[in-house]
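**User:**
Everyone, produce one record:

**Assistant:**
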Amino acid sequence: MCLQPLLRAQNRTMTKQEKESYVWFRVYHVINPCLPSIGGTMRLLRKRKTLCIVLVVLAVFLSLMLSHTIVLDLSGAIRIQDLSPRNVMGHIGYIGVGLTQPKECKPARNVAFVKTHKAGSTTIANILMRYGMANDLNFALPNTKLHSYGYNYISRAGEVLTRDFIIPLPAGQEYNILFNHAIYNRTAFRLIMPKNTTYITILREPFQQFVSTFEYYRVEKYFAKRGYQIPESENPLSTFLKNPYLYDRSTALFSYIRNKQSEDLGLNRQHYKNPNKLKEYIEAMDKDFTLVMILEYFDESLLLLKHALCWSIKDILYITHNVNHKKPKRNFTDSDLANHRKMSHLDYELYSHFFRKFWDKLQSQGDDFFKELAHFKSLLHRVNQSCYARRSFHVKKTKWHSSFTINKTDCRILMMPELVSLDLLYNRTSQKFNLAPNLNYVVRYGRKNQAAQTERLTVNATGT
């Protein structure tokens, strides 16, 4: 068969010389078996030049298509097996066809990020904070007492979000960035943010989000205070899931351990009870949100975000925040998973829909995207090594970005805890618009808890 040589293409590292002749080697083996002889080939070239050219072009196209599905980078830098998903919803492998072509675009200035609990949102918020500070943008900050309980929340479940919930700006000014906790409400958000705002959010696999929340907030201690003690010798999460209503007598359909991501995104009782209402709401979200990121594919999500917002690769560098490194390893049964799905079915519906949409978007990316992804991951490794060692480092120009430097100030802001960041933004806003007396306090950050004045960090936020 004419295409048999193509199917025998080997997935291996090639030398430079082999690469240069690889395509022509395949063209010859595609065409030659289809022709009677070399002499016949030459006669065909003389008499039917057009047909021959078409065959050659077709052979090159087919061979390149096949090589893209087998090997993303012939040099061995990126291979499909290195990028295969971690058994999420049964999908396998990336398939990228073609190259990601550079497009003329204008960086987005107006971004609303709807935070979801225990789903990587704090890390995303740090990225948005850095971008906003570097570009002198205005932040929608909670209009609440500084350092009071939950002062990083703009609105909570059951509250009707209005502009009164946000620190007002002078006439003629508009909000550019919103990333603090606020229950999503389409009408309310659009009364606060400009018309051309890009809406984004992030979701996490529901069971893992439940486990993270349970461990992070030590929910079993909350139950114990109410007289419902979970034996310490057992897996408290598994014990809870066997009979959740024994420990949590509340009839609420939403809580920190029930459908919390759905609640953050504005779903309510009517969506829980009515499948048609749920479907309509998810379809509306499809139209509202430019990108719904997936925590299990965090780096891929950020690279898609970079492209969607027309930002630079430096803008999306990060150091992970709010990770519970002391979380014990737990074993769960199929029954545990089934019981959780029953009590949080909205989160599963939401995640299933947007995971599929995310996956389709990821599969549509070209080879260049995954090469950039590998480069991005290598930069993240350097960021973590250098920032924790308190060293600056320079990044050379590549096809994806200009040269840039990550200095010590960049590292401080990358590593800055969430509430310290919020204090910094409050102080910056008050100084910028003279809205309130200057907040003369010292913020603390870094591994050794070194102190630095907020004003100094504000001045140096751009890394200059």
About this structure: The beta strands are 111-114, 177-178, 198-203, 291-294, 393-395, 404-406, 442-445, 450-453. The mean pLDDT is 77. The first helix runs from residue 4 to 7. Residues 270 and 276 are 10 Å apart (CA to CA).
